[in-house]
Amino acid sequence: MTGTDPDTPDNAPPGRQGLARSLFRGSLPRWRGGRYSLSKLFLNFYLLAMGSFVAIAFTADFIISTAQQGITDDYARRFMRGTITLIEDELFRHPRRQWEQKIQDIDGKFSYKLGIVERRTLDTRLTSAQVAKLDAGDIAIAHDHDVMYHRLGNTSKVLVVGPLSASRNPEEHAGLPLDLRLRLLTWSLIGVIFAVALWFWVRPVWRDLETLRQSARDFGDGNFDTGSTVVQTQLFSPLADTLNSMAERVRQLLATHRELSCGISHELRTPIARMRFALEMLSETDDIDERRRLWAMMEADLDELDQLIDTSLTYARYEREIPEAHFSSVRFADWLADEVDSVRLLGRQLQVTVDTESLPENLHIDLDRKAMPYALRNLLRNAFKYAAREIQVSAEILGERIAIHVDDDGIGIPEEDREHIFSAFTRLDRSRDRSTGGYGLGLAIARRVLELHGGTAFASSSPLGGARFTLTWQAHQ
């Protein structure tokens, strides 16, 4: 934690420390100066895809050839049986001692080789199944050499025909065999066509990768105002959307952080200044009553600081991430009356009434019993600051939603400011007085709580002549 490399002793020689530092740095990804190489990306995709395609093609060809081997052998036997029979009849017209010479004469008339071998020499060259066919007078085919064998009558001589393939008779076909040339041409055309198609696919992918890399680099450098990341292909569209959402969320968190930092630093100045003034006055007076008054002022300032910190932390928690709601069903009229009674003492001499007459009897509503009271109490504290004589809390059912109204007979809120007051650290000009101004966080927290419930909080004019604040959300979650 002091800047030295991990796992490197402090007393290690300079050479070892330099080596350890180099290895440690070399293991880290170097993305800052790097770029995605289009040619390298294309080559990797091409080799992988083309290699896989060739392997699949050869495997499929081998399987098909093996499956069709019996059909091919039967066709070759029927195709060559007449030729082999004619050669056999021609040989039997001559004495056996002339067969070698005669087969050489006949061989010159065919494009494949003819020969005669002894039967005993084939035991190691043919399989047992092929030997059985040969001894039965049938034609045996050796696939490894593309050669046919046929026993000449009951003699020990065997007629050898082949190799039949042109590729095994190079003297008849100069240069590359035709089938090999066709294969090379076919695979060359496939490779070129595939390369062109892959290029047109890889290029947009590479361009999107570069866009995402640049966006990630900007975010890593703390630049979140570069605009949305736009990609051209559907492949990276979900990733780009996620990246844009992340950037927007980070921007909101940074804005909240700046807002809280500036707001709290501003709000802290007044109680701290009053406490400093009270301390100076306390050191200069010996009057007991004055000292008690100054102590009371400092205790009030400490309470104000504690409330500011608690409120700011609550707002930051709701702004950082919306917590998971834990809904439970409550008997709504009783719950509302209990919550109002819990803060009624803060209303001093104000008349606070609760009206639930319009609600059905034994109405049960789903809400978060930990979060919703915080929203309602913030509205009541706000009403306590501005009401002149009376505050009225009422509730009503609006379709499938429940609404709570908090009305006061205070100075009201201009229509153009009714949405703005739900922003953090916002106080209207007429409420700058510390006795009523607050911190501008209570209404912001109330709206966050209602968003947790899938509802909202808003302000309007009150029938009492002041302001009305309304909380509304789905009655049954």
Describe the structure.
- There is one protein chain.
- The protein is α+β, with helices and mostly antiparallel strands and 477 residues long.
- Helices cover 52% and strands 13% of the residues.
- The strands form 3 sheets. The protein has a 5-stranded mixed beta sheet. Strands 1-4-3-2 form a 4-stranded antiparallel beta sheet.
- Strand 10 and strand 11 (467-474) form a beta hairpin.
Shape: rod-shaped
Helix/strand-derived category reads alpha+beta
The CATH topology of the domain at 327-474 is what?
Answer: Heat Shock Protein 90
The CATH homologous superfamily of the domain at 327-474 is called Histidine kinase-like ATPase, C-terminal domain
- Overall mean pLDDT stands at 77
Strand order of the largest sheet: 6-8-9-11-10
The helix tally amounts to: 12
Biggest β-sheet strands, sense, barrel = 5 strands, mixed
SSE arrangement, N to C: HHHHEHEEEHHHEHEEHEEHHEE
CATH class call of the domain at 327-474: Alpha Beta
| Second rung of CATH, namely the architecture of the domain at 327-474 | 2-Layer Sandwich
Summarize the structure.
InterPro entries: 2C_sensor_his_kinase, HAMP_dom, HATPase_C_sf, HATPase_dom, His_kinase_dom, HisK_dim/P_dom, HisK_dim/P_sf, Sig_transdc_His_kin-like_C. This protein is of the alpha+beta class and 477 residues long. The chain has 12 helices and 11 strands.
